Amino acid sequence: PGSVSAAFQEYLQHLGLQDFPCGLGSWNKSRCNARRSSRARPAGLEEAVPPGEESPEVLLELLRDQHSPWALPPDCSPQAQRLREVVVLAPELLRGSRVSQLVKSLRILDKGVEEVDKGLLQFQQLEELILSANHISRVTSAHLPRTLKVLELCYNDVGDLQDLCAQPPPELQHLGLGYNQLCGPSQEKHLTVDFWPNLVSLDLSFNSLTDLLGLVSQLTTLQNLRILLLQGNPLALIPPYRGFLVDSLPKLSILDDIYIWPEERQQFQGLAGQPELIRSEARLVVSIGEIKGLPNPEDFQQLEAGCEGPVITCSYCVTYQF
Known about the structure:
- By secondary structure, the chain is of the alpha/beta class.
- Helices cover 23% and strands 7% of the residues.
- It has helices at 4-15, 29-36, 56-64, 78-89, 212-219, 241-248, 262-267, 297-306, and strands at residues 105-107, 128-130, 150-152, 174-176, 201-203, 227-229, 254-255, 258-259.
- Residues 37-45 have low confidence and may be disordered.
- It comes from Molothrus ater (Brown-headed cowbird).
- Keywords: Leucine-rich repeat, Repeat.
């Protein structure tokens, strides 16, 4: 599927919401008719289940029993199980787009999705949207439900945040953009409180961000930010990288999956006031633990000491590409 909506429809087909024991069929046909005429029936009077039909309790048992042929695989999400049970109790929800209004968490991983389409607006209760490991390069904020609190776009092809920041969900608390194509310094301007007033967690790891000073100047406006991931960017190779961030963002609790203890904050106190330490250079230490398949140089040295014959010397060049 090319869009999120198409992937969701494929997901619904996988759940079999239109098939026994979900949906509407000969196994529960009278229940739908009973709802239509419920006003004419005295309150508290329940009709018996007609012959040939199944009660809601029996249908739910077929879904929940792990030995049932209609049970979901163990790796399915609790959301999928709950959705099937809701449709058993209220099969009329399958009409139109009413099912999407029940979904609060939507996870579509590695399904070849390329477009976040406006069909997402049907999810009026959606709070969590996980679209990791797809092929999304552009996200139009007008297509995102305003109720969204978590947006995860890890392992995609996002290279520009302009469309995402046009009308972003105001209540968003986590934004995951790790392993994308973000390049500085043009993207830092989109990471301010003007766009993300309630952001608590931000993942920008493993992109191509290079401007540490520019990024920090924008992140300081995010007063609710507590978790930040920047590892894997070129700017993380700058020697005072961690200390500068710790001192510049005093409300930050976790940086690159490492908790910031009071002792560390005290250690780097005052570093934020020395931006001259942030230079356009990086330090990288490479330690070679073991090399296999090459002759030991010590063996050649022993031969040179007492050997009268010709000596063969070998040299090797190790190259690192960045």
